[in-house]
Amino acid sequence: MLRHFISLRAAATARNYSSINCNTHYNVVFVRHGQSTWNRDNRFIGWTDTPLTDEGVLEARLAGRMLSSSGILFDKAHTSLLRRSIRTTNLVLMEMGQEYIPGLLSDEAIDWFEQTLTLAPPWRPVSKHWRLNERSYGDLVGKNKKEVVKQFGQDQVKIWRRSYDQPPPPMSDDHEHHPKRDARYRLMLDDIPKSESLKCTRNRTKIYWDDVLAPALRSGKTLLIVGHENNLRSIIMRLEGISETDIINLSLPRAIPLAYRLDKDLKPLTRTDGGKDEATGMLSGYWLGGDDSVREVLERDHAQVYDVSIERNLEKDSDRDKWRRWTELAIGEPECPSFGAHNASHIHRNMGNKTGRK
Questions:
Q1: What letter does residue 104 receive in the DSSP assignment?
Q2: Which InterPro entries does the protein's record reference (predicted)?
Q3: Mean pLDDT in each 10-residue stretch from start to end of the chain (358 residues)?
Q4: N or C: which end of the chain has fewer CB within 10 A?
C-alpha cells in the first residue's frame, strides 16, 4: 500500500496537464472529497455532514499538489453544501495557490481585475449548492456497510449502492440523521429526499449542469468540481454516455483528480492513447494520479465494503499509517498562498495558455 501511494505522488509530479492539451477552452476536473470520519468508520453517509479526518486533509492536499504540478488554472470551483467537500475544495485551492475567500469578489469584480490589470486574481470563487450533495442513502445512513452486507447480501447492497434506479429503503421522519434537523436546509424541507437512486441524483445534478456548469464551460471557463462519489458518478454517466446497465460497474476513488477535455458540444475528446482509462475501462478522462494507482484504491475500497472475510478496517490498517507518515513528510506544512509579484506573474503566464477569458 505504501508503494502505491509513493507511485501516486511520483506520477503526480511527473504528469503535466499541458500534455492533455491545456489550450482547449473546455476543461473540467472532478475531485471526490478526502476521507471523512464516516469513510474511516465504513458507514453510509449520504447528506450527514461528517468532517474530514486528518488523513482526509492529507488526501485533499495531495490532490491539490497533483493539480498544482499539472499547471492548470481554474476560473471557478463548485461543490456541495457538505463540509467534507467544502474543506477539500479549500485545501485543493490552497495547495495550488488559488485559494479564494468566499464572497470576497463578485464575477464583475473579477472581470474588472483582469481587464484593468491584465491578470487574474490569485483566488477563485467557490459556489456551493445542495444539488451537488451526495445521494441520500435513506435508512442505511449511519449503518456500517459491511454489517449491511452481512445482513442483506453482497448483491442487494451493490444494487443499493451502484445501480441506476434502485434506491435504498427510505429514511423515516424521526431518523436521527434526517437532514431536516440541519439549519442549512430549513428553506427547502419539501425538497429533502428520504432516499435516492442514482437516477434521482442525476435528475438534480442535471439541473445544475444545464443551468450553471455547462454555460460556464461554453464561455471558456475552466472548472473544478469537488463532490461526492454518486453525484460525480451521475454527472460522468451523462458526460460519457454510460448506460443504465453499465453504470453499476463505475466507482470513483477519493481525492484523485479526474481531468477532462471537452469538445464544443461538451463531449469528452478522445484520449491521446485513443482508448479509455485502464483503472475503470469506462472513462475518457485522465487520472492525474495514474491509472494503476486508481485501480489499487478501487480494489481496496471494494474489499472494505464487500469482503466479509476481512475483519479489519482497511481504512485504519498499518499501511494507511505508513502512508500518512510518509505524506506528512513529503508534503510538509501547508503553504500559505502568496499574493505578491511572483505569484501574480505565475498566474499571468498560466492565463497566457488561454486566448482570453470569455
A1: S
A2: His_Pase_superF_clade-1 (IPR013078), His_PPase_superfam (IPR029033), Phosphogly_mut1 (IPR005952)
A3: 43 42 76 98 98 95 94 93 97 87 50 56 75 98 98 98 98 96 93 97 98 95 96 98 98 97 95 94 94 92 95 80 61 46 32 37
A4: C
